[in-house]
């Protein structure tokens, strides 16, 4: 059976100061931001730094009740989640459910960059929050 996970879409890092994090990646690695977006539904601002065909996603909360704000308050800055590209987000989400895994999103929903996403609870994936990412262009 072919893997539903086609590649790593992004590694998300929660930061308190998005501009400082961007400046560090730029000055340290000569990395450049290729996309910025505020995702109101999730209460976050993101900056994507491209690394080959994947991204480092720097995330900061835009409101105090967002999941990333709660993460920062509880755990501090650091790795927040891993996003895996999938061809069919709904099918991958159903596979998690069928395997008895706990999901955060009952159904796929719009994500940044025009993607379709769904999150899998860390209890289902050995302690790591997983985002399933379908990019709509067949990747």
What does this structure look like?
With 139 residues, this protein is an alpha+beta fold. It has a single domain, classed as 2,3-Dihydroxybiphenyl 1,2-Dioxygenase, domain 1, CATH 3.10.180. Helices cover 22% and strands 39% of the residues. It is built from three helices and eight strands. Strands 2-3-4-1-5-8-7-6 form an eight-stranded mixed sheet. A hairpin with a 5-residue loop joins β6 (109-110) and β7. The longest helix is centred in the first third of the chain and has 12 residues, at 18-29. The protein is globular. It starts with a strand and ends in a 5-residue tail after the last strand.
List keywords for this structure.
8-stranded mixed beta sheet, 2,3-Dihydroxybiphenyl 1,2-Dioxygenase, domain 1, 139 residues, 22% helix, globular, alpha+beta, 39% strand
